[in-house]
């Protein structure tokens, strides 16, 4: 019998890799893990966690405005970016320590270096340039921001750098129409920067329910973001102390920072995967089956590097399913259906299941909708409405999709997600007594279909 240095070697210490490594070690496997940057990966170091902290910081702007209607008079306001970033950094360092300690406590051997695949059972560690062998290799290297080849693109930053800017730029252009671009537009705007978001398509947040996209666009504009759709960057030039952004539509914008958030690419380059026989998709993702196994039976991949659903809880589920399958003796596939998710735009989106457009393509539906001013916005004077929408299958009465825009939408959708996952019907929603007074009660009091 061949003996290996490890039962499992994991490349990448992010959401998926850490979960797989810990669980496998707890099941008795000898596990090694290499991380070239910081433990915790994108989510903890430069993704979900610092992003949400910045969203909290930005949300005080509207809270201060709303406070006046409730009788408050606030004094001089000022915002200290350096203080926020230092506090964010301290929290991330704390979390990184927790991740490393948890791995260590589970008995995972940690290598703080880059690792590449040298064969179906061999991993090369850049740290001390040696090779180790493993019965199984798990690729969990995540992804990285992609910046298109535009003249002057080197002047631009991505979300990676946005978290560590030395100053809050006075004027920012965010390029892209996905959730990261839209969230950052809200962050910069809330913190007081003059913010323009530029997206080449007709409407941002492609893939989300169209009414949700329109609702958020209107609300973001009302909050002061200059949203420009159907336009793109032709070139970026440095002019003295600022950047000049030439747009394909002809406009020229003077800004202090340009942030590209035009998608992310799987981090597979130079990993030695193809040489080892692993098949990659055209976009560079590791091709895997439902059990996250690649074309080479001993090599698996989870998380963003597989380009399935690029979300932390999904990477974690895939990592757990891998451990169950390979070391737990229970073949398990991660379930990618009806994954509830939030977008921390301002206002926030919570969504689960099918959009109206997707559901209509599958069969007859009924649409239940309410767009209303939440109680908070009555005496605050904020003219922003909340959107609640249920997409219901006409025949089975199943609630196929729930879409919420407004305060705490992300929190609400986690719970609505359980109902959708349990295949609840519209009548199940109706039988549920409302919690009053809340905004969420609208979800169980939508009486008549609007379409
Ligand atoms: P990662 O977390 O990216 O981890 C991969 C790790 O591998 C990294 O630490 C990297 O340094 C390391 N690595 C790469 N190559 C090597 C190598 N050769 N050797 C050694 N180490 C290597 N998801 C949500 O669910 N909710 C959110 O609100 C959310 N917000 C986000 C905001 C931003 C700005 C970004 C960028 C992402 C956000 N995401 C969010 C997505 C989420 O961060 C990812 O889906 C998740 O981190 C994927 O986990 P992963 O394990 O696949 O990869």
CATH C-level label of the largest domain: Alpha Beta
Secondary structure category: alpha/beta
- The CATH topology of the largest domain is FAD/NAD(P)-binding domain
Named at the architecture level, the CATH assignment of the largest domain is 3-Layer(bba) Sandwich
Mean pLDDT: 97
CATH superfamily heading of the largest domain = FAD/NAD(P)-binding domain
Low-confidence stretches: none
For the biggest sheet, the summary is: 7 strands, mixed
* Dominant shape: globular
β content, as a range? 15-25%
Number of domain units: 3
Bound ligand species: flavin-adenine dinucleotide
Radius of gyration over C-alpha positions, nearest whole angstrom: 24 Å
Q: Can you count the beta strands? A: 21
Ends apart, CA distance between termini: 65 Å
Q: Number of helical segments?
A: 12
Percent helix range: 25-40%
